[in-house]
Amino acid sequence: MKKNLALSRLLVGLLLTVLVYFVAMFVGHHWHLNCTFLSDSVLGHATMLALSIVLILVFKKQVNYRIAVPKFKQILKPISLGFLCAVVINVVLSIITKIISGSVQNHPLLEGTTLLKNFLSVFFLASVAEEFLFRGFLQNYLRPLGDKGIKLFKRKISLPVLIGALTFSLAHLILLASGVGALFILRILIFTFVLGLVAGYYQEKHDNHIFAILVHMAGNLMGLISLIAR
Q: Is the dihedral of CA 52, 58, 63, 68 positive or negative?
């Protein structure tokens, strides 16, 4: 792909993604639900999902979106890796945080919530909405840039996968508005970047968005387990 066209596609893709993300966060912050089993974040993620689907439909020729039911054997490794990322990265970085600061902050979405709320709002809706934006739209829109990338553990990680993962990770900087500390943010940024790489890699490998969604859900499964263990 010619350099100017590649740069143009990158800028357009990032601009639309950032626009949808901040519109969704604005809605989630300013509109509230009076619902006992849904978190207020539902409105923001529902907006993100709706706008992401609109982007995919408007740019359907450039995005070439595909989602299909995979074979069971195909999803075992991606799901396992997604969950392993959550466990290893969060446990290791939590131990380091404990040594440095003496305490470990919980994710704001785990405070004052219930198992049902977390399942519906975070494990399900947030996973689906964020994947439709960062992998379903952005990564697929950047697909023509896929000839460039890096080698990681003998596997090629393409530029669209890298950009999708980095954008997904940086989007979590918005958690700073909730008053979390620097070590917490660092842990979240590293975790979401690695999770984004795994999700993006398997989506690209199988040309099937369902893999990214399942990996993301597996990464969020640790939050459900922590609520059960309380």
A: positive
Residue carrying the six token digits 């800028």? 11
Q: How many residues does the chain have?
A: 230
Grouping H, G, I as helix, E, B as strand and the rest as coil, residue 69 is coil
H-state helical runs in the chain: 3-30, 41-58, 60-63, 72-101, 115-118, 127-131, 140-141, 159-171, 182-206, 210-228
pLDDT tens readout for residues 77-96: 999 999 999 999 999 999 99
pLDDT in tens, 178-202: 888 899 999 999 999 999 999 999 9
What the block records as the tokens of 124 is: 């399900």
Comparing C-alpha atoms, which of 153, 104, 160 is closest to residue 134? 160
What pTM was estimated for this model as a whole?
0.94
**What is the rounded distance in angstroms from the CA atom of residue 94 to the CA atom of residue 109?**
17
- Give ∠ CA 53-84-195 in degrees, rounded to 5: 35
Do the Cβ atoms of 193 and 166 come closer than 8 Å?
yes
Cα 168 versus chain centre, distance: 5
